[in-house]
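Retro notes
What went well: the complex prediction finally ran end to end.
Inputs used:
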Amino acid sequence: MGTSELTLKLAGEAGQGVESSGAGFARALHRAGLHVFTWSDYMSRIRGGHNAFAIRVSREHPVAAPSDRVQLLLAFDEASIDEHTAEMDPSGAVLLDEPLARAAERAERSGSGARVWLAPFSRLAEEAGGSKVMANTVALGMAAALMGVGLETIEEVIRENFGSKKGGAVADANVKVARAGFEYAQATWGGQFPWKIGPAARNGRKAILINGNQALGLGALAGGCRFIAAYPMTPASSLYEWLTAHADRHGLVSKQAEDEIAAILMAIGASYAGARAMTSTSGGGFSLMVEALGLAGMAEVPVVIVDAQRPGPSTGMPTRTGQGDLLFAIHASQGEFPRIVLAPGSQEECFEVGARAFNLAEKYQCPVIVLTDGFLANSYKTSPEAAFAPTRVVIDRGETLQSEDGAKLDGPYARYKVTPSGISPRALPGLPWSVHLASSDEHTELGHFEDEDPDNRKEQAAKRMRKLESARAEMRPPERYGPDDAELTLVGWGSSRGAIQEAVDVLAAEGVRANALHFVDVWPFAAAAVEAVQRARYLVVVEGNLTGQFARLIRAETGRKADEVITRDDGRPITPGYILTRLEGLKVHAGREAV
Amino acid sequence: MLDVKLYNSPVRPTWCPGCGDFGILNAVKQALAELEIWPHEVVFVSGIGCGSKLPDYIHANGFTTLHGRALPVAQGIKLANPSLHVIAVTGDGDGYGIGGNHFLHALRRNPDITHIVEDNMVYGLTKGQTSPTSPKGWVSTTTPDGSIERAVNPLALALAGGATFVARGFSGNPKHLAKIIARAIRHKGYALVDVLQPCVIFNRVNTYDWYRERVYLLDDEPGYDPSHFEAAWEKAHEWHDRIPLGVLYETTDQPSYEEQVPALKDGPVATRPLLPLPDHEAEQLLAEFR
């Protein structure tokens, strides 16, 4: 007997290694040829509090969204029982450490129907020659046995993760401990767990397991990022850390700034000098950067800003996820100037956007804001390697002048030359035939301060804004998923992509003709997107905020009012089940009410 | 020596007649000419305020940024292209007030930039409010009963923060100032040049005459050694009757920030060609995720 997919969850206190061993196990499952998708839920503290790491595993099909049911729960503390038994599949199992017997009784009474098995996580760890802290390795060994996945890949990942620590003794101990767990589970619960997935043959498909932040970093590196300055902020820090780890080898300057204000300004300085530059932060840090965002807009300096969103306002929910910064990103700063906002919805799109953001920033000489969120930033997904080919990335610097272009000038170099496209050719400082005068003040074509001449102001402001119209033509329309002639259209942007598409699949299986429109390019609103939205018969916008910001944007840009808006703002990711339940609540499940 | 006219901007300064900023502008041009730095080899990065208009008035690369924000922009430029001479120009409010945090961190990093502060001890462009360097008791529209705070001592602050070059100039003596600025530009590391710069409209106390009665040159001080931190610390606290001008402190025992950045070992990142990652690098990056 086998199963085509299951979800397992590791849950425990911060400091118990839930996240790290979860990520390691996910890699082992990925290596075993399975499709993997992970998401995590953790509290804003270093030790204690409740953490969970979920791994959805599939044999045949790629998975790109969280599931709503858990088949196997590895619980390392009592709180895990209270937090997660409601999600349990009745045919699933909960494994919890022996000393938590009281919680086991509670779990059995919870009525989820799932089996509750007391497991000697810490006892076996010690008996097998390790220490209590290796309890999670025992648990993973047990999970591998229950799922029918061999130990080989797990051993491989353990050896990679611990490397030669203490001459390989740590790795050896962990391998031993994992094996003890594996053998115990086989002997004790053998055939009692119905969710045996087993390894899978990848049949030559090359795949990688990568999370959103890593994919963005890889894209940035491939796209020629030469400078990053940032200030640590969850959930953006890991992007900055990943790039920093690769900085020396790839000729990238990484600078931890004294605050977010300095971070973006350093990036603007580096970009003015000619380096492709970025900064990464979350909404609170982006708030601090807004003054400099306007500087980049006025001085027409390209810069890439990654806002890994988390729920606000203010410090909000630091470790949770949300999509509440959309309208802020589009409108932040005083005055009016062009900027581009992109919201990748998958690891593949993170890579693609990571590189494309620099092309757009340099082509239109303006800030480009990349909106991801805590969920996408931290979620690992088995993804086709071909979608991440750094060598395929095309670098387009737009109208960046080279030293030989000096001969074409018939007067002094004018940094802010008025042109039909709004794009003024950019000479980087250091070219012997020009000086580059940039200014946060309103300025003339040459870059000189000019706030008295109303005609100059009108010309320069209009020139800047024409760039937005030029960019609008290049912005990509939403990707459609599902049939062309649907009764129900779900619209989303950014990280909800996987959940929405899976909801469409479920609806199709129930006989509902639904489709989805997924937006990556959210600002300027693509000219080509207008028709796609207006054609929808029953339009439901799905997004991770309280007030339906994208629905408002769609209405403003297309005149089309969403028929319904499904929002989620409790800090958790949008799941297929969440969408489907809300659709039922809205009585548009079959789209029939609409027509 | 280059011709000073090389740096002439087509724009005439909007500074008030008699403004101390004219002396600074002249001194800067003089220093560049002496050092034979061409306009395209230098970038002036300024904040906001009267003095921060300077990039407009000199023919060279320039970037007028935001109030208090010149230093991080300057550091970004220098990190991307260390072959450019980077000169930050800020006022006292700009540099020591709103930009105080950036100042503090620039001090400990030692980026190879020159920081000229036009210190008139008052907010000029916003019309006469109290500045961080205004003395205690200073009466202005925002402190009608006299400022309660003590003034910042920029030189002492710079020394305490780890600056490797600390100097004071006077815009009433542009020849001497030019020499200090030239030396600051030559210095490998963060160089602060605090310039006493009379605001002829809003500061009726610290006038040219007031300064002339008090300033003296450290060069004329027998036995003064700018490599001596303790001596510099003492001179940084001298004010009122005798005000020292010149290089208070210079040390060459600290590498600049940029010299220590591994990514810059192969030259400026800003001018390196942008090419797709070579196959073997791409392969190695992807291997991390398999």
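What we learned: Chain A touches chain B through 74 residues (CB under 8 Å).
What to try next: split runs per interface for comparison.
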